[in-house]
Amino acid sequence: MSVVTVQSGDFDLSVEVAALRDGDPQIGAVATFVGTVRERGDGAPVSAMELEHYPGMTERAIEAMVAEAQRRFDIRGVRVIHRVGRLLPRDQIVLVAVTSRHRHEAFQACEFLMDYLKTQAPFWKKETTPDGARWVDARQADDDALARWGVRVDNAA
Amino acid sequence: MKIHVRYFASLREALGASESIDVAAGTTLGALRDALIARGGEHARCLARGRAVRCALDQVMADEAQPLRDGTEVAFFPPVTGG
Prior knowledge:
The complex is a heterodimer.
Chain A: E1 4-7, H1 13-21, E2 29-36, E3 48-53, H2 57-72, E4 75-83, E5 85-87, E6 92-100, H3 103-120, E7 123-129, E8 132-135, H4 140-147
Parallel strand pairs in A: 1-4
Antiparallel strand pairs in A: 2-6, 3-5, 3-7, 4-6, 7-8
Chain B: E1 2-7, H1 9-15, E2 18-22, H2 29-37, H3 41-47, E3 54-57, E4 60-62, E5 73-77
Parallel strand pairs in B: 1-5
Antiparallel strand pairs in B: 1-2, 3-4, 3-5
Helix pairs in contact in B: 2-3
């Protein structure tokens, strides 16, 4: 089973967690994050979102982030799934699941991986609205979130 | 040296998906960006200094000081927005 998958199809959280937990009695904690497509806060409806990626680099970049998480935190297993292609509001976009002996490490590693993925994994989102399509802007807040882990990147700036 | 340049997202829409370019030995990624800017037109607009452009060398995030090698794959893209 691959740790990192980039795919267009949807994923099932319970199936992925069951697979991650399988055969490891040392696991005491499972932390998961699911990112979903939401309607914009300003009221403008998002009819669809297109996710572009850099095939090959995307998987490799996330695998390196997982390796870094395993160096930093005492964790057991990791599973990351990120979807690409055309998604609709309420669709699932990304899964990060982490197992560990104790809960603190699982929570930390899960958040670390999301903060890292947001700023360094080569995906680009394009929103389609009734007024036309626009590429989503990167946020400085995401760079700041990663900086709190001691990792400095200049993505948004 | 022959290098292969790929563009993604809004850069891809403006400049096309990819192109092959001949560059002198020792050319850095930054020098390549300058050469593309010097073409003018859409390349100058999209890759201009002051615009947030990120780059990768052989599918690893890179900074502009890094030198290119024969057969290198370079990618230019906007700040990433996954997750």
